[in-house]
Each structure stands twice: as C-alpha cells, then as structure tokens.
Fold:
Amino acid sequence: MKRSIKGMSVVLTFAIAGLVCSGALFAQDETPPPTKEAPEGFVSLFDGKSLEGWEGNDKYWSVENGCITGRSTEDNPVPYSTFLIWKGKPVGDFTLLADFRMVSGNSGIEYRAWKDERREFGLNGYQADISAGDIMGILYGEALGEIIAMRGESAKYDKDGVKTIEKFGDPAEIAKSIKMTGWNTYRVEARGNRFTEYINDVKTSELVDERASSPKTGIFGLQIHPGPPMFFQYKNIFLKTY
Structure:
C-alpha cells in the first residue's frame, strides 16, 4: 500500500507497527507452517528453497527457513514500493492461497497486476494488504483507487467510476480471526470483475469493479513498503486458474 493514507489511520498504523517491533503488542509465532502439497487443481508458485520463478531486488528478498522473506533495515531502507514479481504469464480468473507472517512493517499480495516501468520492480494492480492493525485485510488498488475497501467492506465501482460501500462485517470482530504477527493464510479469489479476500477463511474485503480500467488479467507480486525497518515471510503459495 502507498503512503497516501491520511489522518488517524496513519497514526494508528505506525503506532501499532512500533509496538510490534518492540514486541509489546502481539506475541509472535516464529515457527513456519509445515510445507504443504498443492491442493487438487492448484500449482505451487514457490519451491520452498529458492526464488526461481520470481524476480526482485535481492537487497530485500531472500529465502530463509524455507520461506520467502522480505526485509529492510535502517542501513538498507526501501526508497519506494517495490515487489518480488512472479514471472508467470498473466492470468484472469483464479484462486490464490498464501501463508504469511507479518513481524513489522507493511506488505501485500498484488494481483491482476501489471508492471510499472517507472519503478524498478514496480507493479500496479489490486492488493490484498498486510500490515498489523486496521490495514490488515483491506483491498487496495495501486493506480486503481488506493484504499478501495476497508476490512468488513464490500465496494462497488459502477461503469462511471462512482464508488459505493456496503458493510458486511465488523472489522474488530473479523480481526479476532487474524494473528497480527503470527502465521495466517490469505485466500484471494477473482471471478470476472468480482474480487474477494479472505484471511483464515474469514472474508475481509470485497470489490465489484465495472470500470473499463479494471484489469481483466494480470500477474502477481509481493510488496515491500518504504518506511521503518520491515520483516515478513511467505510460504505455501498456490494458484488455481479457471
């Protein structure tokens, strides 16, 4: 997600991030989930050993303990939103599964994405956001509207680009099903112009996008965000196309 969030949301998010870094807010589950076989109909996008099939800046991306790991430090900061980009062909309708752990900072899974040539390893597209606190589970859109749906919201863009929002759940109640700095599983579903995000099988956000600019196909990427030192991991990334 970009740094365009304003007001109390930014204050809350970075306050939480500071507490997370100090270990004062959430207990951390450092043990990765077991390596899983791809479910029936799915293919694995990560071999558990290397970044084969992906491309990104190796200053920030590595494989540690069988996990794709994003890391920045005070001595090695991220200057702008950059991605570890899946090198496969663009896909349309899909289900994506990914285990993830956020220790500190801000990441996200970019989908129906396209490369932004103005940035090295830059992407634009929809994003299943990952950041401890009120940002976790929102639906973001780089070059598609920024914050589209907060946790517990279903958004709709009509053909003229007018957005409406309906609430389907309480964000605090949904958050109870999420380990903010432990291991969770994201499920992202794209069917035509409907996009639905789940964490641990609980729906977090949704969008119906009737705009002509809504991408019909795209690739995937994992984000590392500019800001304070960040550390997060991914494992067991599986894709099913339709």
In short: The chain has one domain: 8-241.
